Amino acid sequence: MAVPVVDPSLIPLTDADPAEVAPTRRPRRRPARTDLLALGAYVLLGIFVCLNYWGDVNGRVSSHLPTDHSWFEWLFTHGAYSVRHLENPLFTARQNAPDGVNMMANTSLLGVTLPLAPLTMLLGPQVMYALYLGAALAATAGTGYWMLSRHLVRSRAAAFVGGAFLGFAPGIIHHANGQPNFVSNFLLPLIVVRVLTLAEPGRWRRNGLVLGALVAYQIFINEEMLLLTALACLVVVLAYAVQRPRATRAAAGTFLAGLGVAGGLALVLTAYPIWFQFNGPQSYRGLQGGVFHNWGEDLVAFVTFARDTWAGDPAVEKTIGLTEQNTWFGWPLVLLSLVALVLLVRRSLAARIVAVLIVVFSVAAIGPWVRFNGVETAVRGPWSYVSDDLPLVEMMMPTRLTLVVAAAVGVLLALTWDAAYRQGRPAADRPRVPAQRTGEAAPATSDDEPAAPIAALRRWVRPVGYVAVALAVLPLFPRPLPAQQIDPPPHFITAGGWRPYVPAGRTLVPVPIPSNVHGLPTLRWSALTGQEFPIPGGYFIGPNELGEGVFGAPNRPTSSLIYSTMDKDVVPALTDENRRQAVEDLRFWRASVVVLGAHPREAVLRDLVTGLIGPPQRVDDVWVWDVRALVG
Known about the structure:
- By secondary structure, the chain is an alpha+beta fold.
- It has a domain at 491-630.
- It contains 23 helices and 14 strands.
- The strands form six sheets. It has a four-stranded mixed sheet.
- A hairpin with a 6-residue loop joins β6 and β7.
- α10 packs parallel to α12 (245-279), α11 runs antiparallel to α12 (245-279) and α15 packs antiparallel against α16.
- The protein is elongated, with a radius of gyration of 28 Å.
- Residues 1-27 and 427-454 have low confidence and may be disordered.
- InterPro entries: DUF6311.
- This is DUF6311 domain-containing protein.
- The chain crosses the membrane at residues 36-55, 129-148, 157-176, 226-242, 254-275, 328-346, 353-372, 401-421.
- Keywords: Membrane, Transmembrane, Transmembrane helix.
């Protein structure tokens, strides 16, 4: 296997000053057979992770986040609807009628749903969801592999291990349970590479333009992951500057010029969407009560095996009580990481920067109070000193900062495998740096090579290193994502029986009305019929009367009455005021028909709605209340 030349514009593998390393430029290479095998393995792993969905792709959703799963199916339909009807994708009135939803102010995945709109129209949102989820996992691993193999390590196997972790880390697999936006990280390795090449002499315009385009596109995929990547790049640049002040001063002008080009282009491309996000209709500022601000990382989580790994136990999360498993590395990987850092930091600049990333973001991920094994201690965490009113900070969840730690661990795994790989290589294969006094080229000091190598010991380093990495990561091999069966929409909905009841400008009111707690099946009615009818309520974040973000539409008296009846499974005593308010709410929603399909609470819901607006008709497999005459 050919040994690639490490790109000198990035963080070097050796501790030689970049100004002293003989400049070599890598020739452009086509993907080798090894690269294609790596990508093929990632694709197979992506299919394996989504295996439970493919058993009945039209009738299964995530067991852990079924409402999020349905929301993203709805998003794929939104992209297709926007393209088909040439509507502004930044806003929709197909949910939360009549107020609508600001899609830029929500997780909308427009950078994916719009380009894939033709496939969604052809295959449907359920197939598109499962197909994309596996592809996004594989693509992230693939770009991570490219970054590592082309710019940081010599061993393709090392790059494969690191790329696999970047794409399929426990925290990423956890988010794959209904949140494909957090597994859509395939642009992030490319962004990191472009940031680290901004100082490349003579190419600052080109590098800046490419970086600006990548950043602009990532904004339409996941702004939160872009923010975390930007913070990580800032720490990397600062850590490099402290350790390489001379090289930093020499390259600062070029780097800043390229950064200016990138920022300018990204701003031009995204100025209106970002303005719309914060100032458009149904925009908001922060979340009511700063609900995410308290979600810090439990210290025991780092050494715990994640639920969706082969070594994981679903019962453990009940003890720790975390909502997300963004670290959950397990003790073998934590132990390996500590040992690897001890062995590598003295000789590897890259390892030292990785160590800084791990420490900074692990500490930052602790919330306002330190948590240990599910118990909130009296020890203050770093977020207790941060106001939850600060822009951007107000929307951040501290635990998600550990996604940077996961990425750093992935790089560390690649560096560790590569260090073992390079032990025992012939001297001719080692990189050479110019001698400073004699003028003769001498072998470069390898990151993990001792000053006086012992041949017998070196023979054992490679197999021991490989085995150590394997034992640390194999327990984290992902399981297929758990899925649950869900009832299909009524035939009345899928066959278009609703069409005579819903003229243009009017809404179909499903019972129960969709919300972030209730009405998961009825939200899918909209998704699986191409959003051809608007609905009230929904699953989104919108403003309350104070302009703060809240989950779902503000409850109206009738929707609150429906939810309480479902929860109690008893129809309350209805008053004339309840009936008057029901008619008023239907007018507000611009309703033309109310529809109740099969539901565990079907009997009480039918009796409730009948008591409010009169008897229904049985049409096909649903109960129908035609309210056009009632609401005018």
